[in-house]
Design brief:
homodimer, 225 residues, 7 helices, 11 strands, DNA-binding
Chain lengths: 225, 225
DNA sequence: CGCCGCCTTGACTCCCTTCAATGCGAGTGG
DNA sequence: CCACTCGCATTGAAGGGAGTCAAGGCGGCG
């Protein structure tokens, strides 16, 4: 249920980081859609803050299938982990700008600044909550419910119910929700058919009045077919 | 793939907490199997460290189905969240003893102690990694693979391949893996049939030599039937 | 013993995946 | 401008894996 990161704490992180003189060590990097920032198992020399654009973090299985852990938008810190290697691949979904911090320096700054480490802890706790929400979703909800929830989350993150942008491809959505691309398509078609949403193009949708989409997401068991 | 928490950081947390004089404020509570420590949506006045036993954290859906987020054993800190309410229900799986810290005091201590907040951040990052591992598992693995992975994790946490204890019920396992109780049973039966494991009782198993269980968990697509 | 909770097994159903075409919009070059 | 291509999205048909429903089986305990 959680795609795009909340900005508040991250902004705070940015502030605390600059207080700690970290920005002197940081550089900015630009990415085109599809470019990777770091790759699974690569040693984690840097961590990053997204300045603009949308990125995704995912894992690839042996057979080529993927699981998209999360989408991140501007403000989010990514690439921090308890491990010395990155456990995911991070890839730009839209054109992106990111600030790169040397990991060691960043961790030292965090150790030295209670505010920064508190903010980091809070953001991490929030992500953990969100990861668990999505475990419930993937483990216990039907395809229709997952897609409906996903659209609602997109809308909430963009604070709109009309002309909401879908930044990512159908494949990305499928990999995020634990479905196949065909099932995502069919669910979207069905949602249009029952008039829970309308779509002006493949990447823009509006939510119909009346809470129909919410009802479906909540589990009043709307099925495909 | 992640059931039982690693102790190292938590022990450190305990040390740091007592350094900060927190233990003076803490009390110890004992729980029988099935008793709850806190309930979803309840305001989070306390956080807890498990001293002995195994606990589980879960969410309940409207229709009564559950998703077990994680099992925790001694050393783990639970009940901390970015929100002022608990987002899960915590329940004892085996008889448990827990130390209760007033949440406010604990957060203050964390803010005052860089070591403590670093340790908390690390533990939380680790849990996030584990939550995402399990998202991959639930989203992309077959029932057989999930059950096989679960048994391997249990064995790893107990550092044994013979006479490994299954602390939790079949229902708990199912709710943890995003399956039904029947599917878990059938997978276990199948694993016994192909001699990947043997079971001396319903709650104790041994892993067969030859890495058969690992092969199944990895995805060489062993199916039910 | 007989009850009770947990576990196991069987038969059937159905949602989602798999496999396979087809549609569609954007960019390219003749 | 249109033919062509390429990637992404959509739709259809068929099959299978896991869920659902329904009986037992097994072990512990009063």
């Amino acid at each position: 249920m959680a795609q795009i990161q909340i900005h508040l704490d991250s902004d705070f992180i940015a502030g605390a980081a600059s207080d700690a003189g970290l920005n002197a060590l940081a550089c900015v990097k630009h990415l085109k859609p599809g470019e990777t920032l770091y790759v699974e198992a690569e040693s984690a020399g840097f961590c990053y803050q997204i300045l603009s654009g949308v990125m995704k973090e995912y894992n690839t299985l042996e057979d080529g299938r993927r699981q998209v852990a999360e989408f991140y938008s501007d403000g989010a810190m990514i690439g921090l982990s308890a491990e010395p290697q990155h456990l995911h691949t991070a890839e730009a979904v839209t054109p992106c700008a990111v600030r790169c911090f040397p990991r060691e320096a960043f961790m030292h700054a965090a150790a030295a600044s209670p505010e920064l480490s508190q903010a980091l802890l809070n953001e991490t706790l929030m992500r953990l909550d969100r990861a668990r929400e999505r475990m419930v979703m993937i483990g216990r909800m039907s395809a229709m419910q997952r897609v409906a929830s996903f659209l609602l989350r997109l809308a909430a993150d963009q604070d709109a119910r009309e002309n909401v942008s879908i930044f990512m491809s159908r494949q990305d959505i499928a990999d995020h929700l634990g479905l196949t691309i065909e099932t995502v398509c069919r669910a979207l078609t069905e949602l249009k058919k029952v008039k829970a949403v309308s779509m002006s193009s493949t990447r823009v949708f509006s939510i119909a009045e009346g809470g129909c989409l919410e009802t479906i997401a909540m589990g009043a068991r709307a099925r495909l077919h």
